[in-house]
Design goal:
By secondary structure, the protein is α/β, with parallel strands linked by helices. The chain is built from 28 helices and 15 strands. Strands 5, 6, 7, 8, 9, 10 and 11 form a seven-stranded mixed beta sheet that branches. It has a four-stranded mixed beta sheet with strand order 1-2-3-4, sandwiched between helices.
Length: 582
């Protein structure tokens, strides 16, 4: 039988550059619906021989999550299990990473990662920590036991260092079977095929060309029983499953539980309800009978209700529910895609109907070479099938704009605030911003990522001294966004004239992001030679939030570029011939 996961992985040629970390990055993208995995990889992979058994450290302040992962790819897929010692080695990563005391004896890059993590923990921005072991062999009890021990160790250290924070720590061995199941679940809308009956206060039908829906209200207790019986299998189209609840006013799932416990009769009014695909349904005399159940929207509602003790669920509480019957595969995929919003809403979602974003979407459509969603997200299938598409995520566009225009700290540390704060959003996406300018700055970001990837492909013993220094600098967190800002500050030197409004800069030809990145390539390679000497201190001694330190480094960088302009005149002239400057 063909393994769908392995077929999907083979098609992901864009991930080949990451070698043995390809599967690990695919898992991260699949599970967390990450649109631009290349930008995440450039920051989250720990490219250092002394990585303390931490292949990846993914910190997402906006979602309140951290993933610490170790990967393994066996050349012999017939082995019965992955080495448990690789899972056990995560203890080393946990010991230095989660210890609140400043770690000693580790490279600068890992100390920078440590500081970023503990800044987020100190700000109470993290609620979920996941420890993963991702590999291409069957799961084993030995590896799972090591992961549980690592999980308990991490929890103890976090509880000791941050006793007032409510942080949940989980662990998972994502071997061949489990990751395959995650992938297959993302492709299959209905896994639970049982027949259920439920008493309801009433119901009515709606019809479309290829679907029929029954609209009703189901008792909370019935939903609780279904979750208790089938768990995450109910969410076959949602590979992220139920995300858990934190005792935080801003947490959606905890709010649902609070309503179930304290205001049960108001849940129907407070909650958007659930949408589920079914094989069939009928309604007779106050009783609904359904066959098959796959919740495509409302996983968090169902999970939050299912996590409340059954004895605490009162009578009379209902949830608005739509049961949809559809036999057409393409329509089913569309239903899953457009309903699949069970994660807490991302900040960019609130701007998807903004006038600037709607205009940008139209402009990108006219360009015809770059896909841009303007803040709207598709389903998980859109994400994992991204290879071959020249797609630019709105999040990366925002980061590129912010960094190029002087706010690398915001681009790296506070990207969600770009969409949340009106003043900041207006600075990053002013009315005059164009699709062409976004391609200009996003392709610079891509070119910087490509330079880091190029250095990574050179074997350690073949790198020159300059390449070693630059590769070490690239391993510092925030380096890519700082590089984008630094190169942005040299724009007048690059084009050889005053640039009164940097938002007018664009390429003369209608280029895709990858084509435009190749135009930037010689400029990036030339200018980043100054990065290890001039752009190191803000990343090692402080953070990109320290604007005085960043601005001092940028002045020194710009001075070096100006001094060296005559040596790079030919490259600059070739570049400016392809750029509109006014």
């Amino acid at each position: 039988m063909t393994n769908g996961l392995e077929v999907a992985l083979r098609k992901r040629a864009d991930l080949d550059q990451y070698g043995s970390n390809k599967r690990l990055l695919f898992a991260l993208q699949l599970i967390f619906d990450i649109e631009d995995i290349a930008t995440v990889a450039a920051t989250s992979l720990t490219d250092h021989p002394n990585d303390k058994s931490c292949d990846l450290l993914y910190i997402d302040r906006g979602a309140g999550r951290v993933v610490l992962a170790q990967g393994y790819e066996s050349e012999n897929a017939a082995k019965l299990q992955a080495p448990a010692r690789k899972a056990a080695s995560l203890h080393q990563a946990i010991n230095w990473l989660f210890n609140k005391s400043d770690p000693s004896g580790v490279p600068d890059a890992l100390r920078v990662a440590w500081r970023e993590l503990h800044d987020a923990l100190a700000d109470d921005a993290i609620g979920d920590v996941a420890i993963w072991y991702v590999h291409n062999l069957p799961e084993s009890q030995q590896a799972s036991a090591e992961l549980r021990a690592a999980r308990d160790s991490a929890y103890a250290q976090l509880n000791h260092g941050y006793p007032n924070s409510d942080i949940e720590v989980s662990c998972e061995e994502l071997g061949r079977e489990r990751l395959s199941q995650r992938y297959e679940n993302s492709q299959t809308p209905i896994l639970v095929s049982d027949t259920f009956t439920v008493e309801v206060p009433g119901a009515f039908e709606e019809h479309g060309d290829k679907w029929t829906a029954l609209c009703t209200s189901v008792p909370v207790r019935w939903l609780h029983e279904r979750f208790e019986q089938h768990g995450a299998s109910l969410f076959s189209s949602n590979v992220r499953d139920y995300l858990g609840s934190r005792r935080s006013q801003s947490n959606i799932n905890n709010g649902i539980q609070e309503t179930v416990l304290n205001e049960p009769t108001n849940l129907w009014a407070y909650n958007n309800g659930i949408t589920a695909l079914v094989h069939d349904f009928s309604f007779v005399s106050g009783t609904v009978e359904i066959t098959g159940l796959g919740i495509v929207n409302g996983a968090q509602t169902t999970g939050a209700i299912g996590s409340v003790p059954a004895a605490d669920i009162g009578q009379g509480s209902h949830v608005l529910t739509r049961f949809i019957r559809c036999k057409d595969p393409e329509t089913v995929r569309s239903i899953v895609r457009f309903n699949n919003r069970q994660n807490p809403t991302q900040a960019s979602d609130f701007r998807s109907n903004d006038g600037v974003q709607r205009r940008l979407v139209r402009e990108f459509e006219r360009l015809g070479v770059v896909g841009y969603s303007g803040g709207r997200r598709g389903g998980s299938e859109d994400v994992i099938r991204r290879p071959g598409e020249n797609h630019l995520s709105s999040e990366v566009a925002a980061q590129a704009l912010a960094a190029f225009h002087g706010e690398s700290g915001v681009a790296y540390h506070e990207k969600s605030k770009i969409w949340e704060q009106d003043a900041l959003y207006s600075r990053v996406f002013p009315e005059r911003v164009t699709a062409e300018h976004i391609v200009f700055v996003a392709s610079l970001l891509r070119a910087i990522e490509m330079e880091k990837a190029r250095l990574g492909r050179i074997s350690a013993d073949a790198r020159t001294e300059d390449e070693i220094e630059l590769f070490e600098w690239f391993s510092l967190r925030g380096s890519i966004m700082l590089a984008a800002e630094a190169i942005g500050t040299t724009r007048e030197t690059l084009v050889g004239e005053a640039v009164s409004d940097a938002y007018v800069l664009q390429f003369k030809k209608n280029l895709s992001v990858s084509e435009a990145a190749k135009v930037w390539e010689p400029i990036v390679e030339s200018l980043l030679a100054f990065a290890p000497g001039q752009l190191r201190d803000p990343l090692v001694t402080s953070t990109l939030r320290n604007r005085p330190a960043v601005e001092s480094a940028l002045r020194n960088f710009r001075s070096q570029v100006v001094a060296a302009r005559k040596h790079n005149r030919a490259a600059y002239e070739l570049f400016v011939d392809q750029v509109i400057t006014r």
